[in-house]
Design a protein that fits this description.
alpha+beta, six-stranded mixed beta sheet
């Protein structure tokens, strides 16, 4: 059976479901039509939950989980199913209601727009027997959709590659890519049993310990009010009420307040973490901490400018860094209003690029070099009487003073026996226009450390060497691992400049 709707279509579930993709509207039409036709594969409204790990309540990949109302005979008492997915990994089988399928599709559309992704981050496919297959593409993090909590491990840092401590490595990878400087071995020590949301919440609360005694930022804000005394200046909107005399004046005056961007960001982050953590005690701690900022708004917009906490309030620096990481690409205008969802997802490709650029920057500094990301002119043409330029932008450019010495591209993909031709073309074009001798391609692996090999372009002129380096994301499991990664990156960079 096949049905095609206006603009979007779907196929009946079949064993070969890999090419089926649903949007929110498509999923709704399919479920309505299937119920109307009394299809025997129609989703039951209540069923038992199966496939969770008995100790944690997390669903194993490939297991079946039931959301919505469970039957009275169900032995599962947890109100929220926790799905542990791996980015680009095997899907998890779910039993969902029609409203839940729509909610997942809407959440996927929200995060795709928010992170500017090329494809949907959450894919929901129908499977036989009325179940669904949920998988993640190109993102890592954690998000709640109705009663479903989804935890997505990065492709190269997950339970299969790093064991029970994969969340520790994931946290450090997130923090390192977002420029957070405090990366101690205490980060993520409880992550073997707890979700990544609880790990980040614990770090956030730890960074705020003692903040009430040491003080939160203060600032002045202008407010309007009526007073028997003239404070500040008269409110122009209230001129018409000056006569007859009432004994009250409409005035505008500056008032010292804690409702400033830094505190709003912190309170917003605390509220978002409260919605996503699983531990009730930690949720209560977050709620209690929010009471320290009673008159501060919990809303946050990217237009707000947060001054450097490291300079003005160093005791809040780590908490502000975590909050900024959570706020990065978090909210986006969604149709007519603002849709916000509990949870945080990150674009893995962008995160890997950030982490590699930071590694290069920290390795280059002792060598007297600097690292930037800049656009280079590739070709020019005259169009309609004006000169127009086509440009190329390598992810990493290493400079010695004003001169380019190395270009590198970060490729968040599995490296086969050889890099793909298109990867070579991009970095070779950057090396050609800059006339640098050496260019590099950086790929992630689940191992530790950095390994590399070199290719020699056949054409004459620069670039003369293309280095292929594999960055072991497993090194993010410990602080010492990151230090080793930094040291090996410096050796790699030194080798590139001397070849």
């Amino acid at each position: 059976m096949e049905r095609v709707g206006h603009g979007l279509g779907y196929r009946h579930p079949s064993p070969d479901h890999r090419s089926v993709y649903w949007s929110a509207g498509c999923a709704t039409r399919y479920l309505e039509d299937r119920a109307r036709l009394r299809d025997p594969t129609c989703i039951p409204r209540s069923a038992t939950s199966r496939g969770r790990c008995p100790s944690s309540g997390r669903a194993r990949p490939g297991a079946t989980s039931t959301l919505g109302r469970s039957s009275r005979s169900s032995s599962i008492t947890k109100p929220c199913a926790i799905m542990e997915l791996t980015e680009n990994g095997e899907p998890v089988t779910l039993r969902l209601s029609s409203s839940e399928t729509v909610a997942i599709a809407e959440a996927s559309a929200f995060w795709r727009k928010s992170l500017k992704l090329r494809e949907e981050p959450l894919r929901l496919l129908p499977s036989p027997a009325g179940n669904y297959l949920l998988s993640a593409r190109g993102v890592a993090g954690f998000v709640k959709i109705g009663k479903l909590s989804v935890e997505i491990a990065p492709k190269f840092i997950n339970r299969a590659s790093r064991g029970a401590g994969w969340r520790s490595a994931m946290w450090r990878f997130l923090a390192y890519g977002h420029g957070i400087e405090t990366l101690s071995d205490a980060s993520g020590t409880s992550a073997d049993e707890e979700g990544i949301a609880d790990v980040i919440a614990e770090l956030f609360l730890g960074a705020l310990r003692g903040a009430s005694a040491r003080g939160y930022p203060l600032g002045y804000s202008e407010r309007r009010f009526r007073s028997p005394f003239l404070r500040g200046r008269l409110d122009p909107r209230d001129y018409k009420r000056l006569l007859p005399v009432t004994g009250q004046l409409g005035v505008m005056a500056s008032q010292l307040t804690r409702d400033v961007p830094t505190n709003r960001l912190l309170k917003w982050a605390g509220n978002q973490l409260e919605l996503t953590v699983e531990d009730p005690g930690r949720r209560q701690q977050l709620r209690s901490w929010a009471g320290e900022l009673p008159n501060v708004q919990s809303s946050w917009t990217r237009r707000a400018v947060v001054p450097s906490a490291r300079r003005h309030h160093p005791h809040l620096a780590h908490a502000v860094e975590i909050a900024k990481m959570l706020a990065d690409d978090r909210q986006v205008a969604y149709e007519s209003g603002e849709l916000t969802l509990p949870g945080f997802l990150w674009d893995s490709e962008n995160l890997f690029e950030r982490a590699v650029r930071r590694l290069f920057a920290e390795a280059a500094r002792p060598l007297g070099l600097s690292v930037t990301k800049e656009s280079l002119p590739l070709a020019t043409t005259v169009f309609s009487g004006t000169i127009q330029t086509t440009r190329t932008t390598p992810d990493i450019t290493v400079r010695r003073g004003k001169h380019h010495v190395l270009h590198a591209d970060a490729k968040y993909k599995t490296l086969g026996e050889h890099p793909k031709n298109i990867d070579f073309y991009q970095v070779l074009s950057a090396g050609l226009v800059s006339s640098v001798r050496h260019v590099a391609l950086m790929y992630p692996t689940s191992d530790d450390g950095i390994s590399h090999r070199a290719y020699t372009p056949v054409a004459e002129g620069n670039p003369q060497v293309v280095s292929i380096a594999k960055v072991g994301l497993g090194s993010f499991s410990t602080k010492k691992g990151i230090e080793m990664l930094r040291s090996e990156m410096q050796s790699f960079l030194r080798n590139c400049l001397t070849q």
